[in-house]
Design a protein that fits this description.
hydrolase; YJL171C/Tos1_C; globular; glycosidase; nine-stranded mixed sheet; YJL171C/Tos1_N; EC 3.2.1.39; mainly beta
Length: 337
């Protein structure tokens, strides 16, 4: 059902934000455009000057077809996480031949209880503490993050099976160090590539328990060029290089989580239908990028999928067909196009 239909006669304002109905799936359509954003090309530590130049983008899902980083803000307990790429893209990523099997293959995986991690790196904005760099002009660069998600680390470690504290942020990138394809990387920063492809699936199990402090957990995705320069400050965000708020609690203690897009031109907007925050239970969430249809779907799957470990390969139908075959409520929100 369209977002407009679901919201008819049901919208209300709370904490300065608009809400309509709780749903289990939100699909954004008309994803992708062409245009320009201002990419960072130089950061002067002495003057604090942030130099940019126009960068053109186009193609299916643009600018969300560029490599992206994953961001988690506590209070959030991440139980499992996987990033799936098209089989041929994954083979290219690891330098092998084109895959013969269809579908998606697991490019990165994390299992908290087993302390298993492959294909990914945990980072934070703690530059100058163990790794990375701090400057008075630009603050903390990216750094490795400690196992508790609370400070920097001198080397890459696996995130512990623990609650990310309220207000702390953990960033996940690939395990491949940056080269020229990353664009500008702040001097001294810990630079790893974002997750590529206009077709990708992010799958995660998590919970967001209440705490007594800030209590605004979130999961979002950024164009990886943003944290490579500076996540807060000197970056391409304001000019529209791309952010997707996948599951964000907007006010302290709230039990509703919203989605939103922030990017160039028509690629901005947010559905007022919302997800229930998993404060006492673990949920399974899938984010599905589908370039052929120009859409991105966010699905809660725990009602229709058993609590098993994530497979090494899957098809898009594995994380979208349950929406069609069940009584789960779905909202469809068209970006302006």
């Amino acid at each position: 059902m369209s977002s407009q239909q679901l919201c008819a006669g049901m919208s209300f304002q709370e904490g300065g934000n608009w809400y309509c109905r709780p749903v289990d799936s939100i699909t954004y359509t008309n994803v992708g455009t062409s245009g320009q954003y201002d990419e960072v090309v130089k950061m002067d530590d002495t003057t604090g000057k942030c130099e940019t130049q126009p960068r053109s983008f186009s193609g299916p899902m643009a600018p969300f077809n560029e490599p992206m980083s994953l961001h988690f803000r506590g209070p959030l307990h991440l139980k499992q996480l996987a990033v799936y790429l098209p089989a041929d893209k994954q083979k290219a990523l690891v330098g092998a031949c084109k895959a013969s099997s269809p579908g998606f293959e697991r490019a990165a995986y994390y299992h908290a209880e087993n302390q298993a991690a492959e294909g990914l790196t945990f980072l934070g904005n703690f530059g100058g503490i163990g790794s990375g760099r701090f400057t008075f002009a630009f603050g903390n660069s990216l750094s490795y993050i400690n196992a508790n998600g609370t400070s920097g680390s001198p080397q890459s470690v696996v995130l512990a099976d623990t609650l990310i504290p309220s207000g702390k942020e953990v960033i996940v990138m690939t395990d491949q160090k940056c080269d020229d394809s990353c664009g500008f990387v702040q001097q001294g920063s810990v630079g790893y590539k974002g997750f590529p492809s206009e077709n990708r699936i992010i799958l995660m199990d998590f919970t967001m328990p209440h705490t007594d402090d800030d209590d605004r957990p979130a999961f979002w995705m950024l164009n990886a060029r943003i944290p490579h320069s500076a996540q807060y400050g000197c970056n391409c965000h304001a000019s529209g290089c791309g952010e997707i708020d996948v599951f964000e609690v907007l006010t302290t203690g709230e039990n509703k989580a919203k989605t939103a897009f922030h990017a160039f031109g028509s690629q901005k907007g947010g559905d007022s239908n919302y997800f229930y925050r998993p404060s006492g239970n673990t949920i399974r969430l899938a984010v599905v990028f589908e370039a052929e249809a120009g859409r991105i779907q966010v699905n809660i799957l725990n009602k229709v999928q058993p609590d098993e470990e994530f497979r090494k390969a899957l098809s898009r139908a594995d994380v979208t067909r349950p929406i069609v075959d069940s009584d789960m409520s779905e909202s469809v929100f068209p970006l302006a196009g």
